[in-house]
Amino acid sequence: MTDERYLKRTIVKEVVPSRYLPEGSRNLRVYLPPGYNELLSYPVVYCQDGEQFFNFGRIATIANQLILDEGIEPFIIVGVDVDLDRRTAEYAPDGDRHAAYVSFFGEEMIPFIEGKYPIRSESESRILAGDSLGGSVSFHIALAFPKLFHQIIALSGAFYPASREIAEAAGDLSDLSLYMIVGLQETAFKSDRGVFDFVAMNREMRRILESKGASTMYGEHDGDHVWGFWQRFIPDALRCFLHAES
User: Fold this and answer.
1) Strand, helix or coil at 207?
2) Over the stretch 7-37, which tens digit does the pLDDT of each residue have?
3) PANTHER family in the record, alphabetically (predicted)?
4) Which strands make up the sheet holding 10-17, listed edge to edge?
5) Tens digit of pLDDT for each residue in 78-118?
6) Closest CA to 201 of 212, 214, 186
7) Domains along the chain?
8) Which end of the chain has fewer CB within 10 Å, C or N?
9) pTM of the entire structure?
10) Predicted pLDDT at 244
11) d(C-alpha 100, C-alpha 102), whole Å
């Protein structure tokens, strides 16, 4: 049975105006940790597929548990919502809305959030998180804004050929640290782009990243391309980049 303390969550809805996105704005949900105080400063986790991370990944409940029971330093979570009909267009590097979404993320949303909430300004205090294509777009955002991001959580990252080609063409990636997992049953996943072996795809992306100097915390586990699998590893992923209070 879930501890009632974990379910007492403060989540604020925000709307970020955008000159890049055709619809002119994007909805966010912002988790504020227990004991939130505007006079303090916090690390932040930026999640693609924001609604799914909160509803299916249960990331706010997991955050409460880590903070209240494990002494992890309190942190803020920003979930960036996405229209599922436009998801591939925004998240895939060859999608027709990808450049606009990446520009929105780094040039509009980050200043909006960091101007409104007491978030630390150093890149070590920002983490990007995503599942499937959300993992790959997090990588591309980190490449586009290297001064802002270098920590990435990729849950069964959809590192299709276009993403791997971009990684191959990149220079030194030794500033990047990635937490990568993939399910051993993801060998024939049917995506909107065809059937892919996600295990082979993630192994190859890991090889490319490490050849460029990136650090990877990589794992292959029993599981499929579903939130029930990814949710199990969110606590471990967060522990990799967030630390217990001294």
Assistant:
1) helix
2) 567 899 999 999 999 999 999 999 999 999 9
3) ENTEROCHELIN ESTERASE-RELATED (PTHR48098), IRON(III) ENTEROBACTIN ESTERASE (PTHR48098:SF3)
4) 10-17, 25-32, 76-80, 44-47, 126-131, 151-155, 177-183, 215-221
5) 999 999 999 999 999 999 999 999 999 999 999 999 999 99
6) 186
7) 4-161+225-241 (3.40.50.1820)
8) N
9) 0.95
10) 82
11) 6
